[in-house]
Amino acid sequence: MLQSSDVYILDCSSDVFVWIGRKSARLVRAAALKLSAELCLMLPRRPSVLVNRVTEGTETLVFKSKFPGWDDVMNVDYTKIPGFGKVMPKLKISLEGTRQDKDRGKPVAPVHSEPKAPELPKVDMSALFSPRVEDTPEEEAVASRDEYNIDLAEIKSFVLDGKKFIKLPPEEEGHCYSQCSYVFLCRYFVPLETEDDEEEESFKEELDTTVFFWQGHGAAQMGWLTFTFSFQKKIEQLIGNNLNVKQVLQQQESTRLLAHFDNKLVIHQGSRKDPSNKPALFQMRSNGGLENTRTVEVPCHASSLNSAFCYILRVPFEGDQDGGIVYGWRGNKANRHHCELLEEVAKSLCTEAFAMQLLDEGSEPENFFWVGLGGKGDYETGMDAITKMRLFRCSNEKGYFCVSEKCSDFCQGDLADDDVMILDDCRRVFVWLGGQASDVESKLGAKSGQLYAQYWGGKPAQRKRELVLVRKGKEPAKFKDCFHGWVDWSKRKGGFPG
């Protein structure tokens, strides 16, 4: 019940305990201690009541007594006891007084049971041999986006500015920065079926509220704590306590939230307080279907281009703080829906002093386009495997080794540091080792990758795959290309506290 990564408050009226897990975040610990102090003042108690801080592994008997069945027995490894494993001296066994066989008058021979075969550890690798789930057809993806927005009454956007949330300026709507935290307050129409006095059915509508808390991969965790202990309470005072709060990490947005932005969400690197006046390149891409379309800032050089995608290049004029030009670049193999969406997204990156120009691959002007990318260079001319890539997670968190497939809309944030991941790009099978992965996970994960490559590489319609071992922080370019908007690990601050 008590997890090492969490902090718990136990209120027993006469005693208040704050149990702190060893792996819990520092900010969560501080917040729990403050909350427990406020909890003591909220309810009438004796003046002698104090807040007892309990650290994992140092629990007192009083604290343990609050949990029925607390196992207080020490685990002992008997194999480390001196003398364990030595051959016991032979003992002489006398047959006098033993039970006799009445028929034969001989001692009964001792019965020897057959030794049991050692139980093999439980392993579940069935996900490796299951076919990939097909992407949503384009027509269905467009229709589902419209369905998500039918019952949307309004959406209000807020951003963390300093120590408080403020309303997002209109010119920043649909744009998020990786070092910032946002709150999207969405209200939906919910039809209610009632009966009037004439016993005829009539319909009324009320509003249901869902709050999406969006956190960039480089944002500080203080944003979530500020929302939980301050901003959420303000919303509840205005709307009511019936809030549905959902935590959202960058590039792990649900299809519903992406649909509310009409698949035009733009994610910038850095902070909105320090916008760069240097050229910036954005890649429009979707994994697993058009409903997962995002436009994410990528490194601004020619090698980031790929004929399978659309890009937006924003080039400010040198010495001009406001003027510049925005290019919309359509790859020869880009999705047609993305090509149609490109102009609208590019307009959102333009100000009044910026001009806009749409380009097809091969028609780039030499003056500003290639100069903005730091010079003309080689780049990938296709990525046929984008609709066939697969990512698997290898973990023993269930008590046994298990392989599970991530959703097709995966991102860099899905690479768990304490697990082993298997990535298939239809040409190579990468076995990625997290920095905190155990030896058992590493060995079984590598074997799983080998089995996967042999199984699918032997299929008639499949291409043979090369097995590549990758360690966190040393990923090759081919591995990074499989993830939309890859950034250096040092720029990522992890997920939510606790």
Describe the structure.
The chain is α/β, with parallel strands linked by helices. It contains nine helices and 21 strands. The chain has helices at residues 26-42, 61-64, 138-150, 222-239, 255-260, 336-348, 369-372, 439-457, 477-480, and strands at residues 7-11, 16-20, 51-55, 123-124, 152-161, 164-167, 175-177, 181-195, 201-215, 243-249, 266-268, 280-285, 294-298, 310-316, 324-330, 354-360, 390-395, 401-405, 420-424, 428-433, 466-471. The strands form four sheets. The protein has a seven-stranded mixed sheet with strand order 7-11-13-12-14-15-16, covered by helices on one side. Strand 15 (324-330), helix 6 (336-348) and strand 16 (354-360) form a beta-alpha-beta unit. The longest helix is centred in the C-terminal third of the chain and has 19 residues, at 439-457. The protein is globular, with a radius of gyration of 31 Å. It starts with 6 loop residues before the first strand and ends in an 18-residue tail after the last helix.
